[in-house]
């Protein structure tokens, strides 16, 4: 039997992955038949310890899905129960068997709702079809994890990844990390929303947004799904702008619904749209990034920069992050855990900046208590915009744990 993903040979339907380089996943092959009950075979690298448990769960999932007659072959590479359920469900649905039920894993307690203006320095992308990355992602300390259903997932795996991400949101505790999902470009992304919104992700990234209508369409469906599934908590939106048209419409996109909490930019697609090469210096995208920051600030939402694609160039990553912060961005995406601490340092105010801001705030408060309209610090006069900027810097430093 072939170990190719999603292959359909004769009447054998497959889902999942297996092989010597695969971890934490499960491959299922189902051959439907008209009678004879269920015939299940299992090969597992942990079969000695968990084989009976895997077989028991397989039968339970098949019963839930209404499958009574089939040959099922399972190759297990150390999959956890939520992955087992997802892979079996994907194979069953591909085979058009059973009922319309879903194979839900046990649900963990949801974290507190995510705040609209919470810290979003780093967002770690995790391919939505690769469960080996999920369980330990929070240990790397990103502000958010992104379960990705778009570019990192092959088009033939979209259906299976959708089920796997749904189960992951339900079963995996990501600790303090904000739980984000990047859906596919609309209209395919609407199918993603129908599957994942009932599991209450904190934030949805909408790729390749060019007009506010696209965001409004996703927002309407999310609101409907929240009502129908009893989701009583905010689900924020972060449109990804990836074209020249999208940049020109950035403010309208940011203000189409109060559920937009941030704008971000996808520089690979943006530079491809312009027909230019993406460089380390970023001159070719400076206008777009500056315009996005301005639009975000004018709309009262966060501005989040693109990912830095060269995971081996941490000095370059640090340089890009510092440039982003200077431009007004509040964070950026990342594709490898090694980038997270570099991003956090790049977007953190220095101790000198913090000390200066604290002195400005203290001087202003002292002047207010004395009834003075003019505030001075040393030889410099301090006006209200400077004080407000200092307060924001102090608040951000506190959120990062940089002040006592």
Structure explained in plain terms:
- The protein has 404 residues and is α/β, with parallel strands linked by helices.
- It has 3 domains: 8-94, 2-Layer Sandwich (Ribosomal Protein S5, domain 2), CATH 3.30.230; 122-346, Alpha-Beta Barrel (TIM Barrel); 351-399, no CATH class.
- The protein is built from 13 helices and 15 strands.
- The strands form 3 sheets. An 8-stranded parallel β-barrel has the order 6-7-8-9-10-11-12-13, surrounded by 4 helices. A 5-stranded mixed beta sheet has the order 1-2-3-5-4.
- A hairpin with a 2-residue loop joins strand 1 and strand 2.
- The protein is elongated and about 90 Å long.
- Mean pLDDT is 92; it is low at 1-10.
Distance between the termini: 61 Å
The largest sheet is:
8 strands, parallel, barrel
Name the average pLDDT.
92
Helix content, binned percent = 25-40%
- Strand order, largest beta sheet: 6-7-8-9-10-11-12-13
Name of the CATH superfamily of the largest domain? Phosphoenolpyruvate-binding domains
Q: Return the domain count.
A: 3
Q: H/E element string? A: EEEEHEHEEHEHEHEHHEHHEHEHHEEH
Just give the CATH class of the largest domain: Alpha Beta
Which stretches are poorly predicted, pLDDT < 50 over at least 5 residues? Answer: 1-10
Task: Determine the number of helices (DSSP H or I, runs of at least 4 residues).
Answer: 13
């Amino acid at each position: 039997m072939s170990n190719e993903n999603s292959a359909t040979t004769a009447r054998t339907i497959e889902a999942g992955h297996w092989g010597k380089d695969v971890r934490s996943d499960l491959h299922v092959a189902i051959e439907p038949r008209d009678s004879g009950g269920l015939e299940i075979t299992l090969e597992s690298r942990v079969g000695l310890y968990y084989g009976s448990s895997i077989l028991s769960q397989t039968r339970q999932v098949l019963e839930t899905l209404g499958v009574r007659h089939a040959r099922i072959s399972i190759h297990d590479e150390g999959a956890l129960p939520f992955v087992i359920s997802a892979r079996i469900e994907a194979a069953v649905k591909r085979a058009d068997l059973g009922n319309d039920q879903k194979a839900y894993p046990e649900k963990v307690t949801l974290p507190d709702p995510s705040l609209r203006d919470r810290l979003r320095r780093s967002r770690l992308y995790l391919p939505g079809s690769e469960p080996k990355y999920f369980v330990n992602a929070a240990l790397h300390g990103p502000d958010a994890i992104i379960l990705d259903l778009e570019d990192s997932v092959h088009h033939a795996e979209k259906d299976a990844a959708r089920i796997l991400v749904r189960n992951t949101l339900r079963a995996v505790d990501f600790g303090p990390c904000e739980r984000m999902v990047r859906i596919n470009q609309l209209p395919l992304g609407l199918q993603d929303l129908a599957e994942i919104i009932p599991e209450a992700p904190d934030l949805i990234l909408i790729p390749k947004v060019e007009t506010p209508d696209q965001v409004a369409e996703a927002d309407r469906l999310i609101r409907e799904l929240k009502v129908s599934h009893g989701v009583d908590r905010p689900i924020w939106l972060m449109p990804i702008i990836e074209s020249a048209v999208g940049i020109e419409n950035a403010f309208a996109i940011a203000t189409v619904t109060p559920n937009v909490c941030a704008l971000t930019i996808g520089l690979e697609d943006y530079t491809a749209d312009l027909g230019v090469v993406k460089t380390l210096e970023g001159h070719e995208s400076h206008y777009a990034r500056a315009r996005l920051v301005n639009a975000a600030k004018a709309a009262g939402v966060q501005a989040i920069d693109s990912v830095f694609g060269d995971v081996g160039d941490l000095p370059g990553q640090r340089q890009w992050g510092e440039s982003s912060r200077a431009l007004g961005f509040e964070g950026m995406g990342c594709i490898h855990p090694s980038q997270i601490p570099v991003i956090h340092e790049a977007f953190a105010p220095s101790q000198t900046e913090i000390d200066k801001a604290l002195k400005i705030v203290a001087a202003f408060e002292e002047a207010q208590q004395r009834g003075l309209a003019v505030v001075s610090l040393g030889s410099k006069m301090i006006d209200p915009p400077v004080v407000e900027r200092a307060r924001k810097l102090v608040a951000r430093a506190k959120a990062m744990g940089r002040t006592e």
